[in-house]
Write a structure and sequence with these properties.
Elements: E1 2-11, E2 14-24, E3 29-33, H1 40-47, E4 55-60, E5 63-64, H2 72-76, E6 79-82, H3 94-104, H4 110-123, H5 139-151, E7 157-161, H6 169-184, E8 188-192, H7 196-202, E9 205-210, E10 213-218, H8 220-225, H9 230-239
Helix pairs in contact: 3-4, 3-5, 4-5, 5-6
Bound molecules: adenosine-5'-diphosphate and magnesium ion.
Magnesium ion (MG) binds next to helix 1.
Length: about 240
């Protein structure tokens, strides 16, 4: 589903991603870990073309992306993204937030988009919040709306960048629950998170980034119980 080859990205003199190779299969759930500043967000942003990598290739769902010919909007539609800080439109209701892109980007008609939004709201447990504004919702509810909004574009892949890091601890579970359900349904997902319990339960693979490289990857059970790289050991110990 995703194939990243020799990807690199710098900001000025700072070489954030050095040479990343990563293949992600359809329906696979990959959790990205690594210290703050190790390039996790940059890697996700490259996958969604919010950042342009200097070198390397990315293909998503068999479409090669780093080339002049690529229609970025078309590829972006395949990749849903959920951010730490929700990024909902504050002046739009929950329903309006969800139907905006399906109508204006995908060209769905309003009725069709509304109907789908209602189904998605039910899926994330917010069917009674369609006409609320974001600031009338808790952080956990906002994040569930953000997930529904991303799903409304019918993406092939969902990217999550620390989706629960800005939430009060008691609200983390409801968001992870929705993500767990998505994984169970077979969504291909790349998730940056420090929720190691979740990673252990849901991830097919854990990938550790350090200094712009993937230094270790494997099944969560192996990475968490028997990390091989000293940097991974240190990182995991800090989370305990
Ligand atoms: P992580 O998500 O793992 O914490 P990031 O990908 O956000 O790491 O950042 C990696 C490094 O790149 C950091 O040193 C950060 O300061 C730098 N960086 C990220 N985005 C930019 C940007 N737009 N301009 C300059 N430097 C950036
Ligand atoms: Mg980050």
């Amino acid at each position: 589903m995703i194939e990243i080859t020799n990807l690199s990205k710098s900001f000025g003199p700072l070489n954030v991603l050095k040479s990343i190779d990563l293949k992600i299969k359809e329906q696979e759930v990959v959790v990205l870990i690594g210290a703050s500043g190790s390039g996790k967000s940059t890697l996700l942003r490259c996958l969604n073309f919010l950042e342009v990598a200097e070198n390397g290739e990315i293909s998503i769902d068999s479409e090669k992306v780093i080339s002049q010919k690529t229609n970025l909007n078309k590829v972006r539609e395949k990749v849903g993204m959920v951010f730490q800080h929700f990024n909902l439109f504050p002046h739009k209701t929950v329903l309006e937030n969800i139907i905006e892109a399906p109508i204006f980007v995908r060209g769905e008609n309003k009725e069709e988009a509304r109907e789908k939004a209602r189904i998605l709201l039910k899926k994330v447990g917010l069917q009674d919040k369609a006409h609320f504004y974001p600031d009338q919702l808790s952080g956990g509810q906002k994040q569930r709306v953000a997930i529904a909004r991303a799903l409304a574009m019918e993406p092939k892949v969902m990217l999550f960048d620390e989706p629960t890091s800005a939430l009060d601890p008691e609200l983390v579970g409801e968001v992870l629950q929705v993500m767990k359900e998505l994984a169970r349904e077979g969504m291909t997902m790349v998730i940056v998170t420090h929720e190691m319990g979740f990673a252990r339960e849901v991830a097919d693979r854990v990938v550790m980034l350090a200094d712009g490289n993937i230094i270790e990857e494997g099944h969560p059970e192996d990475i968490f119980t028997n990390p091989k790289h000293e940097r991974t050991q240190r990182f995991l110990n800090q989370l305990l």
